[in-house]
Amino acid sequence: MSAVFVGFSLFISVCVAALLLGNLAQRHAASALQRPLPDISHDVRRAAGDKHGLYQQGQARQQIGRMNGFAAFSFSFSGMGLIGCGCWLLLPAVAQGGPAVLGIGWPVIGLFAVLSACIYASSASGMPSTGGVYHWVSSILGNRWGVLAGGLHIAGQAVLYAVSNVLAASWLNMTLSEAFGYEASPIGQYALLAVLFAVQSWTGARDPVRLGRLFVAGAWLEIATMLIVIAIVVCSGEIGYWPIQMIYEQKHPVDVMAASPDATSVLLGLLLLYRGMIGGERAAAMTEETADARVHTPWAIFLSTAYAVVFGYLFFAILLVQIPFSPEAGGLLTGINAIIGGDASKLYSAVAVIVFMSTLFSGAGNLASIARTWDAMARERAALMGERFRIVTRRKGQARSLAVTVVGCAMISLSVLMVHARGGESALPVQPMLLAFLLLHAALAIVAGGRCAARFSGIAILSGPWRLGRIEPWTERLTAAWAIAWLGGIAWFLSAMTWSILGVAGLLLSLTAALRLKKSGKEQRPPLTATRSGSERNAHGVHSSN
């Protein structure tokens, strides 16, 4: 019972911490000079809001902000893909580290995910730019560090998106073969992968208004699916096949492993589950398309991460206690079908459609995020081949940069799928996932560590209406320490081949960054706050935080 008490207390603590942080940010936002201006027409808000602030910071805005706050939230939340995470990563994570990785481990990593979201939200509020990590780091550490952080973040997003499509194609291939009675084959995987990329690229190329509607539909799909599953379990009168205490134990009741999971397997299980919390900062890529971005974008980043932590915990716990088999002996759909009975093909088909739609929305959001961030870096000649492919239109958005992104991610997916096929249908592409986590957390460490270094050096940090006040420096220190520690844990699992690939990619990135910076004539850009006084910043709703 002690493990149950600890796990439940941790989850409640995370929920309370998220509420307190959100309330603190709301109080600061209410007292800021920058307001959503709901009573003023859209034209006035567009002319006097974030566009003017970006011009003063030396950044251009090429799109009209027509997306509302919920659309920005949906962009981040649907991109996390909790449904897909529950289908193809929940059982492998439990098989590695035991059910306790969900009952106890999820709240722990969820707390740090919320803290990371606070850092990203504060940065997005101070500098509402589509460049995201690139511009946030450049504003305090200079252009060299900005190019490095932006490149790491884009690369991490691309690898994670490619691996997610591979997982979706493999899972859909096996599920559809069970539903329609044919034998799963590699050809089916490649065909489904091609369909996913084609539909996602077509969806991601829509104009901002249609994109916002699609993201809202994707978020409602995620929310409705989780609520329906929870409602079915509650209405059935039974908590689950296994007692709820099972999710706090080290071993599954019918685990085929003779020994309890060790620290290494538990860490790997946590890494697999952590996929469901990554992606809240993607809302920053839609800043130019979002109205009142200083307010809506940071709230989208924070709330999407907080909701993913809370709803993901409840959703995964209910799924896990409903599975009557060992995580290593049976699949998720097989276990659920054994409980509800009936025609298995109908269940498989329905779930396959939901997972396909969830993957579609998530992938389209990832593509749009990568393309827009790369395009923002290309404006300052900080991205490879930016001048050739950077074209922005009202109907198609960043059409050419999106096409280049699709080709690059498709090549990564094909490479992962070919290696993945050698390990059999049950093998997971763990190494590419770990590589993506490593790149994303390296970018997070630069953002949080850069803010800490700026405060220590006395460099003013652009701070908007969304901020945490006095506790923000402590949040940055905890996030930086968490990111560095997580980097060490991820590095432990990387193979020699993965390190070789990372080394070659790092060398190419360094050479590219040096050449681009030399060509642009901006070897070191001074902090953006150096030429502005405090009164000038406050006149536009921007606050200096030291």
From TrEMBL:
Xref: InterPro entries: AA/rel_permease1
Keyword Membrane: yes
Region (Disordered): 522-546
Transmembrane residue ranges: 6-25, 70-91, 103-124, 145-167, 187-205, 217-244, 256-278, 299-323, 347-371, 402-421, 433-454, 474-493
Keywords carried by this UniProt record: Membrane, Transmembrane, Transmembrane helix, Transport
An MF annotation (GO) of this entry: transmembrane transporter activity
Subcellular localization, as worded in the UniProt entry: Membrane
Keyword Transmembrane: yes
GO cellular component terms attached to this protein's record: membrane
Membrane topology type: Multi-pass membrane protein
PANTHER family: AMINO-ACID PERMEASE BAT1, OS04G0435100 PROTEIN
Protein name: Amino acid transporter
Lineage: Bacteria, Bacillati, Bacillota, Bacilli, Bacillales
